[in-house]
Amino acid sequence: MKKEFRIKNPEQMIELGKKIGTLVGENMIITLEGDLGAGKTTLTKGIALGLDITTIINSPTFTIMKIHYGRLTLFHMDVYRLNNDSGDDYLEEYFEAKGVCVIEWANNISSILPQEALKVMIKRHSDTVRIVEIEAETPQYIDLLQEVIV
After folding, report:
1. Where are the chain's structural domains?
2. Which residues in 50-65 are b (16+ Cβ under 10 Å) and which e?
3. Contact 67, 51 (CB under 8 A)
4. Please, which pLDDT band fits residue 61 given cuts at 50, 70 and 90?
């Protein structure tokens, strides 16, 4: 199942993320793809709000991962500087650590990602408008996406 959202400003991106964050469950994975500045971290800020996280969310580009605590633990990863051969398979342990993994630039570590994930692609349509495509292939993620659409 695939759904497309037209986002006109950062506030709408945060609201979309917040809705996703209220619906995610333990051990769910959200992969984020899109150009630099497309809105991946902004969406993650919304997901964090939906998880009742109050700490500052910013991109963990240089630390690879930041952990935030709320209703569920958020493992916010930015794997821009990694690749499938960089030996960072230790990240796999967080996929089942009873939290939610949000992974920016997820394609860079595609070889260790599980098949089950909510896949998000953010495309820059103009300076302010983004097209967010969300894809779900397995029942728990399809159910989540159907709830986001409502």
Report:
1. 2-149
2. bbebeeebeebeeebb
3. no
4. confident
Give DSSP secondary structure letters for 31-45.
Answer: EEEE-TTSSHHHHHH
Residues 6+ apart with CB under 8 A from 58: 41, 66
CA atoms within 13 Å, Cβ hemisphere of 21? 29
Q: Does domain 2-149 have CATH number 3.40.50.300?
A: yes
Task: Grade residue 73 by pLDDT with cuts at 50, 70 and 90.
Answer: very high
**Which pairs from 9-12 meet CB under 8 Å and 24+ separation?**
9/128, 10/39, 10/42
Name the packing angle between helices 40-50 and 10-23 (round to 10°): 40
